[in-house]
Amino acid sequence: MNLNFAVLIDGDNIPSAYVKEMMEEIAKYGNPTIKRIYGDWTKPHLNKWKNVLLENAITPIQQYGYTVGKNATDSAMIIDAMDILYSGKVDGFCIVSSDSDFTRLATRLREARMQVIGIGEKKTPNPFIVACDKFIYIEILRTRTDEKDENETEDKVRTKPSVDKITAKEISLIQSSISDLSDEDGWAFLGDVGSLIQKKSPNFDSRNYGFPKLTPLLKSTDRFEIEQRDAPNNPRYKHIYIKNKEKKRSRGRKK
Fold it and tell me: What is the pLDDT of residue 158?
């Protein structure tokens, strides 16, 4: 089933350099039928958006700042999101911002059974991240290309982002998810494990740690057993199952 998404972008809180990569990422989850970006387009700092909007068919929405120090863009996005929700034309929303002010909006949309994907920088506050079904860091999208872009006014050469090191916290998250779904022998279907991890931690993504998929990330830790099995009714396809490795008991010396 191909879901229809409304993509709402906070122009004041998102860099313009990787819009193409963002749209390609969103296309993995559904069809972006509504694409809007919000900001005060009379401000010089938004000029860098103009070319990328045309190239990606994103509609700019003008929102003047009525009061100094207040962000009117947030209110405009929230009002539009609710109008779109009640129109019944979409199955989900992609909120592109690093601003925690959209936490309540994400929660409300999910209450209405909308799928909510968030995209923002790693500085995004955790309340907004956990309010989404899935949250994707812009920094991991930079690995798509390192070509020069003449349209950019910032960072004229795309650089590879730093890769996070997987910690005991993430290992524990994976292990507990396997335990929650495992059969009597300790094996769990990797697809189900990945879905459960996403529910527990919306910003978990193997690309954060330098791996394109979950399987190579798991292999790199040497903490899990991985097994391929023939798919039921179709041996041409393989299903991947995973199991927590048992801890080796240290042998104490007898006195």
Answer: 44
- Using alpha carbons only, how large is the chain's radius of gyration in Å? 21
Contact 49, 37 (CB under 8 A): yes
Q: Are 119 and 25 in contact (CB under 8 A)?
A: yes
**Parallel, antiparallel, or unpaired: how do β-strands 234-244 and 224-231 relate?**
antiparallel
Do the Cβ atoms of 94 and 120 come closer than 8 Å? Answer: no
Determine the Cα–Cα distance for residues 151 and 97; give it in Å rounded to an integer: 21
Read off φ and ψ for residue 10, nearest 5 degrees.
-85, 100
CB half-sphere exposure, 47, CA atoms < 13 A: 5
pLDDT tens column, 153-199 = 344 434 445 567 889 999 999 999 999 999 999 999 999 999 999 99
Eight-state DSSP code of residue 45: G
Q: Is 4 helix (H, G, I), strand (E, B) or coil?
A: strand
